[in-house]
Design brief:
The chain is α/β, with parallel strands linked by helices. It has one domain: Rossmann fold (3-Layer(aba) Sandwich). It contains 8 helices and 7 strands; from the N terminus they run αααβαβαββαβααββ.
Length: about 220
């Protein structure tokens, strides 16, 4: 049964399925997780483009992904924000050279036009109002800034892998997808914002998809 999207206690239970060091341990010890996240990283880096001066990662979890992005852009000011406090605490300890803030993606704790690039990977399916989050991403982007939005594509191969991951083994993220997306649904959602689509890229046997969008000047 899917959780009620307005039931914060149920959402808290979902978040607490995930240990703060889940991504670090998974990538180090699980070949499938390592393959997925490194493929995602490669696709995202390609779409970020020229060296930005500032990057925000919305839904940064424990910071592994933002740290890897920062390694490609070492002069960039990198900031992560997440609503799950244990993950933010872990990220601050693990990556002290980066900035991490506790905050809600529906109301980002940043001023208008604060970042050159905003990354949001595998987040919109977990939030109460995906379009509101996209509009917040747009708000904090500088004019001409770039949003990088990533999610699973919803193709057959991903659906089979996700079923196995959440039902056939002792994993996490069970019942965590509040909204069901695929590539077309996500693209239609993004087109409801004022962002302009620049490029769409698939990765990992087309199981994942990344959209690069630009804020109008």
């Amino acid at each position: 049964m899917k959780p009620k999207i307005d039931d914060h206690d149920v959402l808290e239970e979902i978040w607490h399925q995930v240990p703060p060091d889940y991504y670090q341990n998974g990538i180090a010890n699980n070949q499938l997780q390592r393959k997925w996240h490194t493929g995602k990283l490669k696709a995202v880096i390609e779409l970020i483009g020229n060296d930005p001066s500032s990057i925000l990662d919305v839904g940064s979890a424990s910071g592994w992904f933002l740290d890897r992005v920062h390694r490609y852009f070492p002069k960039c000011h990198c900031v992560g924000v997440d609503i799950y406090e244990p993950a933010i605490k872990h990220a601050k300890k693990q990556y002290p050279s980066l900035t991490f803030k506790l905050g809600d993606a529906h109301k980002l704790p940043f001023k208008n036009s604060s970042f050159d690039v905003v990354i949001c990977t595998e987040v919109l399916e977990h939030v109460i109002d995906p379009l509101a989050v996209v509009k917040e991403i747009e708000r904090v982007l500088v004019p001409g800034g770039r949003a990088i939005i990533e999610m699973d594509s919803g193709n057959f191969l991903f659906r089979a892998a996700w079923y196995w991951w959440t039902n056939m083994r002792k994993g996490v993220w069970r019942d965590s997808h509040i909204h069901i997306f695929n590539s077309s649904i996500l693209e239609n959602l993004l087109m409801k914002s004022e962002l302009t689509l620049i490029k769409k890229k698939y990765f990992n046997f087309s199981m994942g998809v990344v959209f690069a969008l630009e804020k109008r000047t």
